[in-house]
Amino acid sequence: MEMLKTAILLIKKDIQLEKNTGQLSGAILLFALLAGTIFSMAFLPGQNQLQNFFPGIYWFTQIFAVMLVLNRSFIRDTENSCQTAILMAPISREMLLLARIFANYLLFLLLSVIISPVLFILFDAIPISGPFWLLPIVLLVNYGLASTGSLLAALATSTRISDILLPVLLLPVLIPLILAAIETTRVLYFSQLDYNQLYFWLLFMLIYNIISTLISYLLAPYLMTE
Amino acid sequence: MIAEKNRIKNYQASNLKFSRDGYNIINDISFKLSPGQITALFGPNGAGKSTLLKLLAGIWKPDSGKISWLNHPDLKDFNIGYIGHELFLYKDLTARENLEFFGQLYKTNNLNNKIKNLIKAAGLELWLNEPVRKYSRGMQQKLTICRTFLNSPDLLLLDEPFTGLDTKSANFLIKLINQNRNIPVLFTSHNIRQGFKLADNWMILQAGKIIKRSKKQNQDELDTFIKNYDKILAGDILNGDA
What we know:
GO molecular function (chain B): ATP binding; ATP hydrolysis activity
Oligomer: heterodimer
Domain ABC transporter (chain B): 11-232
Strand order of the largest sheet of chain B: 5-6-7-3-8-9
Structural class of chain A: mainly alpha
Shape of chain B: globular
Keywords (chain B): ATP-binding, Nucleotide-binding, Transport
Number of domains of chain B: 1
Number of domains of chain A: 1
Order of helices and strands of chain B: EEEHEEHHHEHEHEEH
Organism (chain B): Halonatronomonas betaini
Pfam families (chain B): ABC_tran (PF00005)
Number of strands of chain B: 9
């Protein structure tokens, strides 16, 4: 309950910051449009080849947008040492990191809501078999991005080169999740759904998320420092 | 704020040691703080004053040693009021949004009234809904003070709190400190006269060690103290000589 309350506070603060500055939402929308346009011009796909490249384009656009958001939100928190004031709150570091993960998770879901329609329309890429399966995939992948991203952002923040270090640390750790995300989404573009494949990758992502949450919880006291 | 029955009685730091990048910054420091007592920490630049306050606030962890309040089982209800060199404010949020965010995070009771009273006392009513980015440095410092006192702290740790404040703002801070006289207060200052005036006890820190400590006695002592301060730092006057 405490974690949830703290997460809501962090989200409320991020939304207020965004409302006052309007820096991020416009940039993300523009980024999604640009990425989608460039990719659609570069690949010139036929509809029967959609499954070969669209899942990759879709998830890489999401991951780069996530990195923009993560960087920005941690820069906002480290400016004037606000992060230190947050750490001094009478809340355990574990709860703070879990709250941050949850807050980022909701933000990333919002990103998906912005990015997905842009890419689906530009590529005319609504999944033909079982479009509703996209929902659990988006929920699981974004959670994985939030838990791993928040953990590594907390680690990178304590260094002097956080903005460079974050993508360098994050991308290798995300490789299993990116592969799973692409493979699961690819399944949705075949005329017949391969349920074995689908369940395997969904389970894989679930395990990835559990492990990354456990690691975050255990490392929080060491990583959540000034 | 922690319940009266669970209130920490013993504010003690024992055998603190801290090093960074191979330098010993804090060398085996022990002292007690008493509720209702204001302690001034003097010392030259680089003596380790700010580092010591960060250790006491729990921002950094000492390499060894114990800080009684940070090991207390009720720490989750224990509020430390800390003013550092940084503002701890979101510049793109308004004063109200900053105070509401930190107030809720620190589980402050009766938040709206407290914000109203503190902002009025600080003379920032007209700026309450303006982004902090528009404030002058002194106004930002005053807002930081408001944020610090918002959550009824159980312990106050103030690092050079008077820096950048005009006389009126300094008086605002002193008034708030005096309103919280039932808790221990530790502050650092380069302004020895001002610090000595406010404090009940004082300590001098040099090269990570407390080289002298005393209770404030009278005006004569202040004059002697100021006269001898450089000699104390140079090691010409030993504990109890000044």
